[in-house]
Amino acid sequence: MKIFKNCAIIIYIFVFTSILSLEKNYKKQNVVSLTKNELIDNNIKHDSLNLYENQEKLIVSLTSYPDRIKYVKLVLESLVNQSVPYSMYHIVLVLAIPEFPNKENDLPVNLMEFINKYPDLIEILWYERNINSHKRLIPTLKKYPNNPILICDDHIIRKQWWINMFLEDHNKYPNDIIFGASNQYLTAEYKWESYKYLFLKSEAGKLNAIKNMIINTGKPMNGFGGILFPINTFTDKRFFEEDLLMKLSPSSDESWQWCFNIIENKVLRQSSKIYDYSKDIIRNSQGTSLYRVDDTNYDLILKNLINEFPDFKKKLDEKFKLINYKYCLCTIVNDKYVVGFETMLYSFYKHNNWFNGDILVIHDDKYSVLSNESKKGILSKFPNVKFLKINTLKYDKVNMKSITKRFIPPLIKFEIFGLIDYDKVLYLDSDTLVISNIYELFNRNENLICITNHKYSVENKEIWNNIFNGKRRTEINNGVIFINKNMLDKKHVNGMLNLTLKYNKSFPFYNGLPDQDIMQVYFLKNNIKVTLVSNIYNTVKTVFYGNNRKITDEKIIHYVNLKPWKSNKPKYKYIYDIWHNYNNELNELYTDKIKIENETKT
């Protein structure tokens, strides 16, 4: 009897241990994931943990159809294996009953087995009507109107960082729509175009490559990279009219969503990580992709939406006030200023992605020399920059006794008035930094716009000629100049050059800065009215000396004298750090771009 009892105990222990082992194996992925996720990672800041504790649960929504349902299990596996705890998100698979009339019985067995493992994490939402790719969002939005919703494709494996990235971006920009990828934008001519500057080459086209950038008329690839819609993104009742959406945009839910994002003035922001999601598309799954719609269909859908919604057309027109103009951003660059130019251009485009004009670099072979190597480096980062090499023999004739060789490159700035092929020209020195949207400058109608020395405050439309008194506080700083069509004439270039022959210390208002002194005298002698705008468009770095003043409403910072890429003067640490932040962003972006594109090739 004793032996029997001992055997029973041994059997009991064995069975109990086996059950524990089975349970452990059954929940292995959950346990490992949860343990890992609760601790997160040493690289994630403590603030992120607070984010996870306080943020509302994220709904991750996707859909599929019979031809692609066999791939969904792989996608769900990647969504289950994310680096965030299950308590932070819920997965919804939306399926249309007309496509799967027997519901679960029509689904692959391995898919159902996998879903049943995670009853609290994954749900199937059956929808009465087949509304094509619109199933990704609308049914889920109806069921979960008070949750942020992240939608994705059913044929792309998601990296472990994917959901975490969206959660952190949403925490930082809670009211913005966050998207993972965009490969085209709408031009002022109402045509779809690939990104021209700072893009990432991929099988899905040229992807925007600027992190956290707010796009003006760019359209997200909502399922490809994913897109997170905050609560109350869609408040217009027309958005939910299924007969209407199936009539106007049956094959593109992203066009439909984008239309109402424009109507409701929503902010569309690129995610904090740039990634080529085409690398993670499941092999052989792309033939019937939901997001692949050719340009002809996109054009037809856009036409349908514009005709149906006058308010949509009105909102687009507001974004395209420059529709009838040819415009450019230009600067003068030599080999010593390449790093300044690249950082300036990155800062400009980061905040002004509406810009579809030319980027023009002026140089020559004698005074402002730009080597082929430098050009190649610039084009590797900004492929569509244009170079204008000018003949500077005429600059050999300047009064060399009063204008030393180091002051001749700034004189080349006169050439901007000869850019007669453009309607609007914005000149920026290559040692400036654009830290805000400056669309309003391009939308002004005055012939010539400049900014005075920072010590003089002006009102908009004040005429410089009326207040100039020859003192330093009222002089023009020509590091930023905006020129409209009526002032673009080569006679101005020749007129200023003629004054260089007379330039010396007895020159009117002589200040030892030939380009600015000559330009001012030319404007005065020829009664050329100069409209002044606020110093926020040309704030010189010296106002930040001592690191006490902080940036408030400034839009363009001008790093006069010692340059941030050559100096680390402690008294300018604050304003230098801002320049270095932009420069570091550009370098990181370019490094990532090369890495990702090389990985794609292999």
From TrEMBL:
GO molecular function annotation: glycosyltransferase activity
Sorted UniProt keywords: Transferase
InterPro entries linked: Glyco_trans_8 (IPR002495), GNT1/Glycosyltrans_8 (IPR050587), Nucleotide-diphossugar_trans (IPR029044)
Source superkingdom: Eukaryota
Family matches, as PANTHER family: GLYCOGENIN SUBFAMILY MEMBER
Protein name: Nucleotide-diphospho-sugar transferase
